[in-house]
Amino acid sequence: MDRKIRVAVVGASGRMGLEVVKTVLSEPDMELVAGVARSTGPVDLGTLVGLAPCGVTMTSDVELAFVESKPDVVVDFTGPHSAFSHTSLAIRHGIRPVMGTTGFTSQDIEELDKQCQEKQIGGIIAPNFSIGAILMMKFAAQASKYFPNLEIIEYHGDQKLDAPSGTSIKTAEMISEVREERRQGNPKEEETIEGSRGGYYNGFRIHSVRLPGIFAQQEVIMAEPGQALKIRHDSYDRAAYMPGVALAVRKVMTYTGMVYGFEHFID
Ligand code: NAD
């Protein structure tokens, strides 16, 4: 592209949104054209993230921001309640959605893909933009062909609302594409305390740990008689997601349809 990619950030005052604003302001081929959040008021987005003023003021109406700033791409990190409506709204305006927000159902994704196809634009819904986490998922899926007995343990901060995490669900889906469905463990197993064995997914278990001070970690433990293989990823900071977000902003300019999962961008 011979001009800068015009980017709007929705959820711009949030924990992820602030990092995205910083990233867009620092990428030479991107131009920040709008920032939307519900509660911050009309602050300059550059000032908000501790950089020089950038001349873009925070607003609170998503559709108005789309109409007035005419972005090529919108990066959205808001919340599950607005995941579908924001994506659909962006597509209607011909704006390519890069959705970090979690909470889409498979029917939502199918419908949004149709909308993207009709408008002839690209989009991505990615439960995890961290390249390291994606590699962890890919390696786990690859290994599950040879180590089909496995459990997932994911660790997040104690204020996280949903369990298990979007990343663990995506990992489970990727594993299930490779590993034949089979129930693990003793068929007569009983829980004396409800939930002790974790959530059930296609024959294996997902465990969610929630503790203060933890950012985001996941371990896939696989074992066969006499050996175990542990594949683990640790993120310490939201900066971990930003190379992936920047790559997604560039990529969505190049194809048509809705991609689900950042792993499709990593060979
Ligand atoms: P947060 O609560 O810190 O920020 C949410 C932001 O969205 C705030 O600016 C809020 O004002 C804004 N907002 C909420 N609803 C809105 C609406 N209807 N219209 C306009 N603005 C709205 O949350 P966070 O920690 O930044 O996480 C945001 C989302 O991103 C969550 O769904 C979380 O699960 C997800 N997440 C995804 C990834 C990934 O890699 N895909 C990584 C971390 C978090």
From TrEMBL:
(S)-2,3,4,5-tetrahydrodipicolinate binds at residues 166-167. This is 4-hydroxy-tetrahydrodipicolinate reductase. It is found in: Cytoplasm. Homotetramer. It catalyses: (S)-2,3,4,5-tetrahydrodipicolinate + NAD(+) + H2O = (2S,4S)-4-hydroxy-2,3,4,5-tetrahydrodipicolinate + NADH + H(+); (S)-2,3,4,5-tetrahydrodipicolinate + NADP(+) + H2O = (2S,4S)-4-hydroxy-2,3,4,5-tetrahydrodipicolinate + NADPH + H(+). Residues 132-265 form the Dihydrodipicolinate reductase C-terminal domain. InterPro entries: DapB_C, DapB_N, DapB_N_CS, DHDPR_bac, NAD(P)-bd_dom_sf. Belongs to the DapB family. NAD(+) binds at residues 11-16, 100-102, 126-129. The gene is dapB. Pathway: Amino-acid biosynthesis; L-lysine biosynthesis via DAP pathway; (S)-tetrahydrodipicolinate from L-aspartate: step 4/4. Keywords: Amino-acid biosynthesis, Cytoplasm, Diaminopimelate biosynthesis, Lysine biosynthesis, NAD, NADP, Oxidoreductase. It is an enzyme of class 1 (oxidoreductase). NADP(+) binds at residue 38.
